Amino acid sequence: MKLRPDIEAFAQELTDWRRDIHRHPELGYKETRTSGLVAERLEAFGIEVHRGLGGTGVVGVLHGSLGDGPSVGLRADMDALPMDEAGVAEHRSTVDGVFHGCGHDGHTTMLLGAARSLAASRAFKGTVNFIFQPAEEGLAGARAMMEDGLFDRFPCDEVYGMHNWPQLELGTASIRPGPVMAASDRIEIEVKGRGAHAAMPHRGVDPIAVSAHIITALQTLVSRGTDPQDAAVVSITAVNAGSTFNVIPHTARLLGTCRTFRPGTRDRLEAEIERVAVGVAAALGATAEVTYTRGYPPTVNHPGPTGRFAQAATAFLGAGAVSDDADPSMGGEDFAFMLEEVPGSYLWLGQGGDFDLHHPQYDFNDVLLPVGASLWVELVEGPR
Ligand code: NI
C-alpha cells in the first residue's frame, strides 16, 4: 500500500479534523455543526456545495478536467450514536450520551480528504458527487436525502459507500457482489391479559406467562421454519411488564428485531411473527397485537461497480489484501436505499483494533484516514 503523496502530506490535518468531530458528536438530523464543517471545507477546496438535503445532508459537486465521463456518487455518514463513550482518549466525546461509536467521524473525514485531493488535481473524467448524509443510525437519512431529490438534482451513474471494519486487519478490505448487509425491521408486541392479585392467578390472565410462551415459540421461526442455507435473525430484545411483587400486570410489551436477506423470507417472517404471537396468546386466553415496521432494506452490491471498487482496492492495498469471502453481516445499513435506486457497491475497510463497532470503548483508527481517502481517489481515477 502506498498512500497518495498529497494525502499523506495532510494526514495530520485529517486526524485533527476527525478528533474535532469526535469531540463534538451529533445525533441523526442534528448534525448542524458537523455538516457546517463539511460544507465550509468543501467550499474552501473550491467545490460547489449544496446544503440542507434531507435536513442536514450536504452534497459537493466536482467536475474532472479530463472530459466527459460518468457521474459517480461517494457517500459518507455523519451521525453519532445515543450512547456514552467509555474510552479515555484525549479527544473523547464532550457530549453526555452521544458518541461516535461507529466511526462515522472517520468516514466523514476520509471523504473530505478525498475531496481535497480530487479538487486539487481534477485528474478524472466526468463528475464526482460527494454525498454527506445525516442519520444513518436507524433514522434513514439516506432515504431522506433521496426524498429531497438527491439523485434528481445530482444524477449518479454509480454510487459507492465504505465502512471501517474492526474485524478486518488494517490494510485489508472485503467486498463482494450480492447481499452484504441485512434488512432490518422492528417488532413490537403488545400482550393483553387480565390483571389480578398475584396470590389469585386464576382470577386473571397472566401476560408475563403468555409472553414467555410467545418468546419461546418465536425461536422456531428461524430454527425450524427457515431454510438452513438462508440466514435470518428474530431477536426479542426488550420485555416490559409489571412493577411489583404481588400484582399480575394487565399487559406486557415486547420489542425485537428481524433481520433477513431475501425478500420472500422477510415477507414470510413478517406474517409468521404475527401468526405465532396472536395464536399463542389466543391459546392461553390472552390477546396479542403485533406491529411490524420495515426498516432498512438489505444492502445488495451490484456486480459491475463491485468489480470496479474491488479493482481499485486491489490496485491500492495490494493483491491479497482484498477478500471477497467475508460473510455478509446481519447488521443493517442505510446505504441500502441508495443501492435500490442507483447501481453501486459497499466496501468494508479493515481498521483492526480491540473493540467492535458500537462498543463503548470503540474509536476510529486515525491511521485509516489517509488510507480511505486514497482509496476513494483511486476509485474515481481508476479505469471504467
Ligand atoms: Ni456505521
Report on this model:
There is one protein chain. The chain is α/β, with parallel strands linked by helices and 384 residues long. The chain folds into 2 domains: 5-181 and 298-381, Zn peptidases (Aminopeptidase, 3-Layer(aba) Sandwich); 183-296, Alpha-Beta Plaits. The chain contains 11 helices and 16 strands. Helix 7 (207-223) runs antiparallel to helix 8 (263-283) and helix 9 crosses helix 11 (368-381). The protein is elongated. The two termini are 21 Å apart. Bound molecules: nickel (II) ion. The site of nickel (II) ion has 4 residues, from loops.
Portion in helices: 25-40%
Distance between the termini: 21 Å
Q: What value does the Rg take, in angstroms?
A: 23 Å
User: What does the overall shape look like?
Assistant: elongated
Low-confidence stretches: none
Beta-sheet strand percentage? 25-35%
Total beta-strand segments:
16
Class by alpha and beta content: alpha/beta
Report the CATH superfamily of the largest domain.
Zn peptidases
Mean pLDDT: 97
Count of DSSP-assigned helices: 11
The major beta sheet can be summarized as:
8 strands, mixed
Spatial arrangement of strands, main beta sheet: 1-2-4-3-5-16-6-15
Q: Ligands bound here? A: nickel (II) ion
| Order of helix and strand elements from N to C terminus | HHHEEEHEHHEEEEEHEEEHEEHEHEH
Q: Give the CATH level 1 class of the largest domain.
A: Alpha Beta
CATH topology-level name of the largest domain: Aminopeptidase
